[in-house]
Design a protein that fits this description.
- The complex is a heterodimer.
- Chain A has a domain at 90-280: MetI-like (MetI-like fold).
- Helices cover 71% and strands 0% of the residues of chain A.
- Chain A starts with 18 loop residues before the first helix and ends with a helix.
- By secondary structure, chain A is mainly alpha-helical.
- By secondary structure, chain B is mostly helical.
- Chain B has 2 domains: 2-62; 68-235, MetI-like fold, CATH 1.10.3720.
- In chain B, helix 9 (166-174) packs across helix 10 (179-190).
- Classes of the chains: A mainly alpha, B mainly alpha.
Chain lengths: 310, 277
């Protein structure tokens, strides 16, 4: 009972503390929490420990024996051109999709919030991609972006522009995938920003106006943006993490090609681990992937501590 | 003043409408192309209304190649089972953490926070090896088991339960209810907003998930909708976009229809859960 902490439990003041009933309460609590605890250990803790351990082995599925190879996998990763390409592509994809979907999400939310006509229609329209099966919509995009029969290129030809081979050429494929990624996530960010906007008290705007913020742009920078701080940090974290986890569109549309131009982190891990069955090597990649996630989460915590004043 | 107001508003509406058109374009073309014959798809992709209606043919092809019924059924079964397990396991745990005193609460909190960091992509390799050696690949068990525990559900319910008044629970205890009885008859009925929000989060996430089903399922009989669509694409030689669009339409429809019908709940659910993804 010594390790009661501020985060874990509300302090019960009114009840007289009786040792027996407290012990009974602890036992019941244990029973209620036990299934969850066992499953967390079974499906989260143990696999994470296993993946870190496997990262130091040369384990391949189908071979009965394996041996520990120290940091050999990590050394190989460092020189692996596919993996480096994959990290780089994931970084580019994230650098495009996260900021674009955050800014567009905020923009659309602001426009919808200040408009009175058709609010729910616009909200639905922008949100629809979030509720749609990504693999299916990726297929639709593949048709839209088809180099010869696709409507996008036909439209471009109509106004006399040459249509690129969007998903088929190494120069454009990553940008095409990014575009689909942005299309898919804007609505989600918009909903979160809309919720953030509604939570801003109206009187703050009138107060700002009295204080001399005459134009709506002034009021935006004085009131809206600072008040959206927590929402923005949250949206940013989710957007970045989701962008790093891009997989569905790549698997459906390009399989990492052409010529590894759309090879991304999760796809490379999938390929090494589940197609070539090099579990040890893929585990080392997974550890790098996990490290990226951990670093980003800590960055978010620090940002929340420092920057956001509510 | 009114002049600039109208101009600003016109610009705003134009921007919103143009954006909405771009966002909806894939759906418009999906519906249009699903009704076109092969030759029309190749010649005039910009006309939206098919000159000859090929809806029946294309839908027949879509239903013929891959059993769409099985796919949708698998999706419903897998998402349903996952959701039920998650809730049944997470709610008692969250209740214990929120309202009862016990030594392991702190450790559990640490485990939950750690779990929030770890997506299925990070645990899939060892889990795959384990399911493979237990001969459980290509089964509902493999599709459902890893998601039976949702630390996010625990986290969400924990926050919700903490806000519930203690008096409610004390009163139930005085009435002689057991702790499990309290969970089922006091906590759950009061937690519907959180449960609905979590249901939307969970179903959207698992209906759309491709990664894990792709790893553990190679048999079409257990394919979930996204995986089934991949199979369909593989079976579809060439560019039969009419049939392909018909298939995507069938598979996209259930969740989109659910969203259109329960929009308000969806939006509330997302604002509440942030759809961790």
């Amino acid at each position: 009972m010594a390790d009661m902490t501020a985060i874990s439990l509300p302090v019960e003041k009114s009840r007289p503390i009786v040792n027996v009933s407290e012990r009974h309460e602890a036992r019941v609590a244990w029973m209620l929490a036990a299934p969850a605890m066992i499953l967390i250990i079974l499906f989260i803790v143990a696999p994470v420990i296993a993946v870190i351990t496997l990262g130091f082995t040369d384990f391949e599925l189908g071979y009965s024996t394996f041996k520990f190879v120290g940091f050999e996998n990590y050394a190989e990763l460092f020189g692996d051109r596919t993996f480096r390409q994959s990290l780089w592509n994931t970084a580019i994809y994230t650098a495009i999709v996260a900021p674009a979907s955050i800014l567009l999400g905020l923009g659309v939310a602001l426009l919808i919030e200040s408009e009175t006509v058709g609010r729910s229609f616009f909200r639905t329209a922008y949100f629809l991609p979030v509720a749609s099966l990504l693999v299916a919509m990726a297929t639709v995009w593949q048709y839209l972006l088809h180099p010869t029969i696709g409507p996008v290129n036909n439209l471009l030809n109509l106004i006399g522009l040459p249509g690129p081979n969007w998903l088929g050429s190494a120069g454009t494929v990553l940008y095409s995938l990014s575009m689909i990624g942005v299309w898919q996530t804007v609505g989600f960010n918009m909903i979160l920003f809309l919720a953030g906007l509604t939570a801003i008290p109206r009187d703050l705007y009138s107060a700002a106006e009295i204080d001399g913020a005459k134009s709506s742009i002034d009021r935006f920078f004085l009131v809206t943006l600072p008040m959206l701080g927590p929402t923005t940090v949250f949206v940013t974290t989710i957007s970045v993490i989701n962008a790093v986890k891009v997989f569905e569109t790549v698997k459906t549309l390009t399989e990492g090609g052409p010529n590894k131009a759309s090879e991304v982190l999760l796809f490379t891990i999938y390929q090494e681990g589940f197609v070539y069955l090099r579990v040890g090597y893929a585990s080392a990649m997974t550890v790098v992937f996990l490290a990226v996630l951990v670093v980003m989460m800590f960055a978010q915590y620090r940002l929340v501590d420092r920057k956001v004043h509510y | 003043m009114t002049q600039t107001f109208t101009l600003g508003r016109a610009i705003r509406l134009t921007l919103l409408s143009l954006g909405a058109l771009i966002f909806l374009a894939p759906y418009i073309f999906m519906i249009s192309t699903a009704g076109k014959g092969q030759s029309e798809i190749f010649t005039s992709s910009l006309s939206l209304i098919p000159t000859q209606f090929f809806y029946l043919e294309n839908f027949a092809k879509a239903f013929g190649r891959v059993s769409m019924g099985t796919l949708l059924w698998n999706g419903v079964v897998v998402c349903g089972l996952i959701f039920v397990f998650q809730v049944v396991i997470a709610i008692p745990c969250a209740y214990a953490m929120a309202k009862l005193k016990f030594g392991a609460a702190r450790l559990l909190m640490a485990l939950v926070m750690l779990g929030l960091l770890v997506p299925i992509h990070a645990t899939s390799l060892p889990l795959y090896v384990a399911f493979d050696s237990a001969a459980l690949l290509n089964s509902y068990t493999a599709l459902v088991a890893p998601f039976s525990i949702s630390v996010f559900a625990i986290f969400l319910f924990l926050q919700f339960f903490r806000a519930m008044p203690d008096d409610l629970i004390h009163a139930a205890r005085l009435d002689g209810m057991s702790e499990l009885g309290i969970v089922m008859r006091v906590i759950v009925p009061n937690a519907w907003p959180a449960i609905t929000a979590f249901a939307i989060f969970s179903v959207v996430a698992h209906w759309n998930d491709l990664y894990w089903p792709l790893i553990v399922v190679s048999n079409q009989a257990y394919a979930t909708p996204p995986l089934g669509l991949l199979f369909f694409r593989a079976a579809e030689a060439g560019d039969d976009y009419g049939a392909l669009m018909a298939a995507t339409l069938i598979i996209t429809l259930p969740l989109v229809a659910a969203f259109l019908l329960a929009q308000k709940r969806f939006v509330e659910g997302i604002t509440m859960t942030g759809l961790k993804g």
